[in-house]
Amino acid sequence: MHKQERLMLTNPEPDRNIEELNDDEIFAAIRYLEPHPTTKGNGDNGVVISVCLYIALLGCLAVFWLYLR
Fold it and tell me: Which domain, by its residues, includes 25?
């Protein structure tokens, strides 16, 4: 496994055709590009989306209120 990762770093043909790769080489490239796939981000995306939707809803209600006024 470490040997394949080392080969990925010193590959003299970086622009090989993707059809020429076998499954092991593709998985080695994925492991090289994303060594820790279980690492979690900051996890605040849900909060940000909720706040943006709440602000958009308040903006729509404000426009509707001004229209009825």
Answer: 1-38
Q: 54 and 27, same structural domain?
A: no
C-alpha pair distances (Å), 67 with each of 9, 18, 54, 57, 62: 62, 57, 20, 15, 9
First to last CA, the chain: 69
**E-assigned strand segments in 23-66:** none
CA distances in angstroms from 47 to 41, 42, 50, listed in the order given: 13, 11, 5
What domain count does the chain have? 2
Per the structure block, which two tokens stand in for 30?
């994925």
28-63 per-position pLDDT tens digit = 888 888 767 565 666 678 888 999 999 999 999 999
- 30, 49: one domain: no
Tokens 């426009």 -> residue: 63
